[in-house]
Write a structure and sequence with these properties.
Two copies of one chain form a homodimer. The first copy, chain A, contains twelve helices and 19 strands. Helices cover 30% and strands 20% of the residues of chain A. By secondary structure, chain A is α/β, with parallel strands linked by helices. At the A-B interface, α3, α4, α5, α7 and α8 of A face α3, α4, α5, α7 and α8 of B.
Chain lengths: 455, 455
């Protein structure tokens, strides 16, 4: 239990949010998983089955996309908050992984009555929209219907989990919603079969007492002195508002989502952890200032551009390949301006640096410390992040070069055992961001984590 | 300056949010206006031109729907945050009211580069959707295009204020967005004329340096020690997530919106004021547990139902008629369960009770203190709010009756001068909600306000 909160200044935090600080795939899952041991309630507040953690428990591997990772710990209660969008067929598929294992989820999974249902037609709409957008204009969405589900919510054409309690009412709403969406997107849909399926889901949910007034539920847990941990899906630069729009997801991935998507007031959020990979990766298109990989590796830099070999190295050593998609992730140096911006929005209490070990072999390491506008030559003030794709594509990065440590940090658990240059790298991150780098990942395993002593 | 923050425990609050705590029209405008005198920055974080405050300054009346009310004070900077949706023609119309007055807005209004533009086609879509919904299924929206604009944002078909900086790029995005929306809603649109109009808007905005990176801007102001006040539009029970869906607006009206819509992290929000009318009103359809008015007055209670005369009295004395729509507001008793729920979500530091004077003539006053499920007979625990229209329609209200004061409180500014029964009413609210009732409105005027001494 070295890596838990117990050894940190956050040992008594009643509400802790774990948020991706870059473009996703930072390894949030591991920290949320490790911390869950010390918490009573694990909640999701945003997104849907587009999250994707691999959780290993008792030697069995579980792929969770929608379910809170806490479900594998028998002592936890798990909540899908009002801000999530729930595709029930996917949820029950994920739960089916637990059949016949030692993990029993009954009574430990609660769905907010205010969460919106994501239906198959939302996934169909994702396809229609990609097609209408035309070749070369793909947003590279996961086609899981997330955007269309949040759009239905905004148009007040959404149907919520609580609507399932009165099935006749639900059926009427469902028919009317399908009709409205067909008028916009012209698709065929087997309404009656779908209703049959949902009748069965509704029975399981109501018989299992799985639908709750999550706002009251979570706040009651808080008042009862329970410890609550929130798992953010996606990451700051994919936030609907703060991300590099339109290459974003359709929900808040930043800390405000804890309030809008779970009903905890700001004063209750005690600790916000930003999860930061020791370098930067990005999936799909869109500008990426510190990028090293080239077009062949799925990036946007010219083939064979300087540093592409280092990008390829990070990609292979870091295993930077999408779990479900098999798509290679673009890789680049650590981007401090991006993190300053993400810290401004989220107000991190602490950072979890992940994958430090992936840098082990490098002779020198660069840190992007500032953005410069390539047309005006001006350096952007810390915290300023270009809002348009065109402006972001125009920035040049000012780098600092630091020496690598060229020895293995894999599996190290004590700060004192990290090579001096690795300590210096982490310390430089801390100085540049002015946030304590509390947890440092040195490998994929749960124990492969250093807790940095606080001054 | 009696009514300002200066005489309250919040005198040093650097960031204060003023939020509607019920179904809207609580009189948020007056408090925001009064407090603005003491603040440097006034921001909006949600919604669009659907807010509606009347601000009186130097004897001139201004109707602001989109603009922050602080604009009438020369010392303030005013921001439309990233979470707002901006219809530029409406914005410039509102600004035109200030032409030839002593109020100069130049240099004092900033638009977030990340705020989405609301176009005329979003308003057209609102109409198409109401039509498709069919007779009797109206949501009673203001048809200002708010829902469709947030839907475009979620579908990543939105265009943001920052896109106007590169007009050719904007024009291409605009053509493509119109095309996408026409495929869904089949309407005609004069693209070229609209582009001409927007070219002129873009010139004004860029020449006037009105487009800013609002996240950095607001946080810089905070770091510079400036005081920031946020004006919420709409109210808690109209929140997209926490309101009585689908009779809601399409943005967060609760405190999380300050984070998602302006980029201030939770730890920076020092004071959250809930604005609570001394009774309850609601516009349009949807369940309303403490309602007194009947069908003739725009309500849902049977004609001539008991108490309808009191409802009609509140309506006329309180001037409960929509400013733009002329629609009568439904009136009812104070609803504590609703406020307990809204307080749970928002975490009020203090409450501003408004329109206490409207109750002056009543012999006895009822306070709704609990909800009871009429089918099971069970009392709902405090903070529990039914999530569906059907469940909310089913609640019975448990009332407490208190004696009225039957004398005028109009214009009173001192707590000691309030009639004992009026003091007792406020004190009862405070005890039931466990939040200090800091400001108490005793009339529409800026000076007609009591500050309740803190124990
Ligand atoms: N080498 C190494 N791998 C890590 C570390 N922390 C997490 N990982 C692995 O990195 C991957 C994280 O990616 P992913 O699960 O997509 O990220 P998430 O969605 O943010 O949790 C997982 O395979 C983890 O096992 C670390 O410190 N070192
Ligand atoms: N009688 C009375 N009227 C008030 C008081 N406070 C505000 N008002 C008036 O009530 C109305 C507030 O409604 P409105 O502007 O729709 O509310 P808002 O959108 O929440 O600001 C305005 O006409 C105010 O002048 C008060 O304490 N007493």
């Amino acid at each position: 239990r070295l890596a838990s909160t117990a050894a940190t200044p956050f040992a008594s935090s009643r509400v802790t949010a774990v948020l991706g600080a870059q473009w996703g795939d930072e390894g949030k899952g591991k920290l949320a998983d490790v911390l869950a041991e010390d918490y009573d309630v694990v909640g999701r507040f945003n997104g849907g089955a587009n999250a994707g953690h691999t959780v290993i428990a008792d030697g069995v591997k579980y792929a969770f996309h929608l379910l809170p990772c806490g479900l594998v710990y028998p002592h936890t209660l798990n909540i899908l908050g009002n801000g999530t969008v729930i595709h029930l067929p996917s949820m029950f598929d994920e739960l089916a992984q637990l059949d016949g294992t030692s993990v029993s989820w009954e009574g430990r999974l609660k769905l907010s009555n205010r969460a919106h249902l994501l239906f198959d037609y939302h996934q169909i709409i994702d396809g229609v929209l990609e097609e209408r957008r035309g070749a070369g204009k793909s947003l590279g969405t996961t086609k899981k219907g997330i955007g269309p589900a949040y759009a239905s919510k905004a148009l007040r054409l959404g149907i919520r989990v609580g609507d399932l309690v009165d099935f006749d009412d639900f059926a009427a709403k469902f028919r009317s919603a399908v009709d409205s969406h067909q008028k916009m997107y012209g698709f065929d849909y087997g309404i009656d079969d779908e209703l049959e399926r949902y009748r069965a889901f509704a029975d399981i949910l109501t018989n299992g007492d799985m639908i709750v007034d999550s706002v009251a539920y979570v706040n009651q847990a808080y008042n009862d002195g329970k410890r609550i941990i929130l798992e953010g899906a996606n990451a700051a630069l994919l936030d609907l508002d703060y991300g590099t729009y339109p290459f974003v997801t359709s929900s808040p991935t930043t800390v405000g989502g804890v309030c809008t998507g779970l009903g905890l007031a700001p004063g209750k959020i005690e600790c916000t952890v930003g999860v930061v990979k020791a370098y930067t990766t990005r999936v799909g298109w869109g500008p990426f200032p510190t990028e090293l990989t080239d077009v062949n590796a799925g990036g946007e830099r010219a083939e064979g551009a300087p540093g592409a070999d280092i990008g390829a190295h990070l990609q292979s050593v870091g295993g930077e390949i999408g779990v479900t998609t098999g798509r290679k992730r673009r890789c680049g140096w650590l981007d401090i301006p991006l993190l300053q911006y993400s810290n401004m929005v989220n107000g991190y209490s602490a950072v979890n640096v992940t994958k430090l070990d992936v840098l082990d072999d490098l002779e020198t390491i660069k840190i992007g410390v500032a953005y410069r506008d390539s047309t005006t030559g001006e350096t952007l003030a810390p915290g300023h992040m270009p809002s348009t794709i065109a402006e972001l594509a125009r920035v040049e990065v000012v780098y600092e070069e630091v020496p690598g440590w060229q020895s293995s940090t894999q599996g190290i658990t004590e700060w004192a055992e990290l090579p001096p240059n690795a300590q210096a790298y982490i310390q430089r991150m801390e100085d540049l961001l002015e946030v304590p780098m509390t947890w440092i990942g040195t490998g994929p395993g749960r124990d492969e984590m250093v807790i940095k002593p606080h001054a």
